[in-house]
Amino acid sequence: MHAIILNALDCSDMQRLTEPRSKQAPPSGWTEFCVRNSVETMRLNGFVISLCVALVSASQPLHGQENVSADKQFSEWRTKAEKGDAEAQFTVGYFYAVGQGVAKDEIEAVKWYRKAADQNLAGAQFNLASCYDRGQGVAKDMTEAVKWYRKAADQNLALAQFNLGSCYMHGEGVALNEMEAVKWYRKAAEQNCADAQYNLGRCYLRAQGVAQDNVEGYKWYLLSSAQGYEIAKASIAKLEAALPPKQVAEGKQRANDWLKNHPKP
Asked: Cα separation of 74 and 52, whole Å?
């Protein structure tokens, strides 16, 4: 099942370092850079939809027929969902969440997401986790959010891996564990998730859950920036000014090597 992120929102915060930095001497201006550039990407608060729903949404009817078409689509998906089709249950949940073809009802959205999630559909597990994370259609419960993020993350859904990493980084719904946060950020970053690449780079620069490695941190910032991620792009120039030219060159080489080994599909 392919999934697409919708309405992802980025947040930022300042977090006190809890892991000791390595004994590596920082370059000139490094302390100032870390203090002034401590923005972190928090959890992605959007929903995912199945590829088939994205295709339906992209195929818009003629003006004046939108409501009839949406109602018909919802009715067709609902019929399949009631027969136990997990993809259809997921889709019906999304329609209820956004009010497409039916009155918006977040409680009903959770109900249908759960049915699909119980059938091990990763996208539904992610959306159900997001509902618990945001208190949308269900009481906010970060322990439950982590439970469902983990189920989706174990199925290699990058967005879930990123959000699970964020939960570990901040001790939300699970004991704070920066090494676990880095583990999940890395899994998502290796799938070319720009948010995860940025946060993983930040962990290397700040020695959070991993030994400090300025070059590796710069590499991940470059990869995130290459995808147009604005927070990373804004940090690149300042980081390059703080690092020695040799480390800048090495970071660029590492980023290029990574791209060669991870061609876009």
From this structure: 13
pLDDT 10s digits, 90-120? 999 999 999 999 999 999 999 999 999 999 9
Q: The domain at 3-261 falls in which architecture?
A: Alpha Horseshoe (1.25)
Task: Indicate the pTM of the whole model.
Answer: 0.80
What count of other Cβ atoms lies within 10 Å of the Cβ of residue 118? 13
CA gyration radius, the chain: 21
Q: Beta-carbon neighbour count of residue 169 at 10 Å?
A: 26
Do residues 146 and 152 touch, judged by C-beta distance below 8 A? no
Quote the CA–CA distance of 196 and 40 in Å, as a whole number.
10
- Rounded to whole angstroms, the Cα distance separating 180 from 173 reads 13
**Residue 164 φ then ψ, to 5°:** -65, -40
Residue whose C-alpha is closest to residue 96's, from 135, 151, 47: 47
Burial string for 78-113 (b: 16+ CB within 10 Å, else e) reads: beebeeebbbbbbbbbbbbbbebbbeeebebbbbbb
CA distances from 70 to 53, 57, 115, 265 (A): 11, 9, 22, 32
Domain ranges of the chain: 3-261
What distance in Å separates the CA atoms of residue 9 and residue 42, rounded to the nearest whole number?
9
| Residue 255, C-beta contacts closer than 8 angstroms, at least 6 positions apart | 219, 222, 223, 226
